[in-house]
Amino acid sequence: MDDGKAIIFSAPSGSGKTTIVRHLLKTRDYLSFSISATTRPRRTEREIHGKDYYFLSVEDFKTKIKNGEFAEWEEVYDGHFYGTLKSEIDRIWSLGKHVVFDVDVKGGLNLKKYFKHRALALFVRVKNLKVLEERLRHRNTESEENIKERLAKAEYELSFENGFDKTIISDKLGITLDTAEKLVEEFVFGKNL
Predict the structure, then answer these.
(1) What is the pLDDT of residues 129-149, one digit of tens each?
(2) What is the pTM of this model?
(3) Cβ(97)–Cβ(3) under 8 Å?
(4) Which 3-state string (H, E, C) describes 176-187?
(5) Digit-coded pLDDT (tens) for 177-187
(6) Reduced to 3 states, what is the DSSP secondary structure of residue 191?
(7) Distance CA 156, CA 73 (A)
(8) How far apart are CA 126 and CA 35, in angstroms?
């Protein structure tokens, strides 16, 4: 797809980007999700290879780095690599769809640099770190140590907000989703809504 576009959602963990992405994928059939590769273990047995992530060994991941198979990659947490395979982007564009990314902040900036004018990079954030901490605790998926680590990382990631094309404040769900829909449609179809 010569005119394929990339819509990138990045945010500190717990800001709501995945909720936004899932909504757009359910309501916009011209979009398709880019499945990331990772070396982290599956969180639950419900996570499926090739659907939720491409689960790779560290050795396989490093081989793909060496072979230039990633549009972007990074070691997000110690020993946990994440990346976007070029083959995944090609797969989606070959279907005539635009690719949607749900990636961390550094990954989002790297993808924006990789795609240039073909990308819309959206930064999702909550009002403040207190709200973020409440959301992380409410998920009940993180240890106390992980929550502290994610909050420290979030504070750092917020410093990159200005590197993105637009910011979406994740507060009231309906307004947040409407904002995301309008920004994506303006970018994909050139509509000024």
Answers:
(1) 999 898 888 888 888 998 998
(2) 0.88
(3) no
(4) HHHHHHHHHHHH
(5) 999 999 999 99
(6) coil
(7) 19
(8) 25
